[in-house]
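yo

u said u wanted the structure for the complex thing, so here. seqs first:
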Amino acid sequence: MRNMSNKTDLVGKSPRATIKVKSRSLIIIGVVLIILAVIPQIASDYIIYVATIAMLYAVLAGSYDLTTGYTGPLTFCHGAFYGVGAYTSALLTLKAGFPFWVAFPISGIMVFFFGMIVGYPALRLKGHYFAVTTFFFAHFIYLVILNSQGLTNGPLGLRNISPPESILGISFKSLQSSYYLIFVFGIAAVVFLYFLVNSGIGKILVSIRENDELAEAIGINTSFYKVLAFSIGAGIAGLTGSLFAHFFRLLHPTTFAWMTSEMVVIMAIVGGLGTLFGPIIGAGVVTLILELMRFAPELRFIIWSVALIAVLIIEPGGLMGIAGRIRGGKK
Amino acid sequence: MSTILSIKKLRKEFGGVHAVDNVDFTVDRGIRLGIIGPNGAGKTTTFNMIAGAFKPTSGRIEFKEKRIDGLKPHKISQMGIGRTFQNVRSFKGLTVFEHVLAGNLAHNTRFTPKAEQYQEVENILEMTNLAEMRDVTVQNLTIAYQRRIELATALATKPELLLLDELMAGLTYVEIDKTLNLLRHINEEMGITLIVVEHVMKVIMELCMHIIVLNYGEKIAEGTPKEVANNPIVIEAYLGEEAEYA
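structre next:
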């Protein structure tokens, strides 16, 4: 019986890098959700746009963490999956006449399989070789979008993308209602990721990150799980891209240039890799800081780069590492 | 007694070097087999081929009458061969409990692990004397602990055959004695066949029922500990090595 009682708290035990949902964390999450929920009611359109971008980036950074934070391989192509999702969804509605509600899941599924096709060969490479491959892959996707003029309209971009059709009497024509759609999607995506990283599969992924040779030796099909994590992350990025397309109703290739992929990497690192909530918070913080620095556009990225390097020197664990240090839970 | 593992004309070349050359042997189910030999004799290479980390240049490895040479390590592990590494490998950032749990989950991956799976891990920790360390992060523990954690994780995969590569290296005599008892228990009570590579002669002589001697990649002798210890070829192989040190 003694063992039994011990066991129950073991079940809830999460890996080192995973945040323990304590009451304090729950309060913080609740406050953030309430703020996000009331923004459209009280704030200006500008702030609604900024908050939307922050939420889209939060989902991107969270899904990015699945591969790089939990499973290990460093990737630089999350923005490319975001772009493929956005263009897939926009083209399905514009050229094939699909309603948004059909194009949205199709773009997620398509990008999931696309991630699989890319990940299967690329993940045979290790470490930096894989990272460099994904970097060039992201650029390749950008060039394809830019130059396939017949399909994507090239540098002119796609216009007149329809907003999501009304469903259950809710119209998504207004800025506020589209915002809430992305808000609900963001919550759903984060809840899904949370359960995934804390599941048995999440523990398998973490063991691959910690030592993939030992993971293979104890019977884990490491290449399968790496491709799986990569594809799930890609699929979520694809869904996010679809929402982006139908929220802004305008697509341009530069939105999905290498800078976007790099931003996701930076957000995840600033927040703290392998913590899920870290990258999400990082996305919010980075978006906010970059907006606040708009007064000095030419200095923005210089100041920002210096700040990033400072974070990495002071606390490689990112914001979550700093939070852990304040709590005194982590050495 | 049935044969669990059989190795026929196994060869491994690295460039022009024959690390393992035409080695044949069979392993009966339930025994404790030792493989000895001077440094560079091909012991670890043989292990790596059985466990799938290396593909043999030629030859055949059969486990439970199924050919396994050239399969991926995770497939071989799923079939029932567990192993530990000569240089300790561990999931450094996990706690001891999570480390051993990974072994269990690897063979029974579930979104929500069952209560029995946690209990099985609990039992293994108890048996390997790791229970009190179970919430400690692995990287904070000594090599002796890390070796035991690696063994516990291999046990969590429920192997039928366990390959132990220098499990005792760097342990004190007291720790060696404890580990010997543990290995006997694993073999006798749990029915797991053991193949042990070890430099500590005391361990091999006390633990193993049957010994294979490798030298320069070839099998030079085979028999009970007593036969091997009195075999002039073996003595020469070892004394030759000793003479070089002198």
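Chain A is about 75% helix and 0% strand. The interface with chain B takes residues 3, 6-7, 10-11, 13, 15-17, 199-201, 203-204, 206-207, 210-211, 213-222 of chain A (CB under 8 Å).
cya
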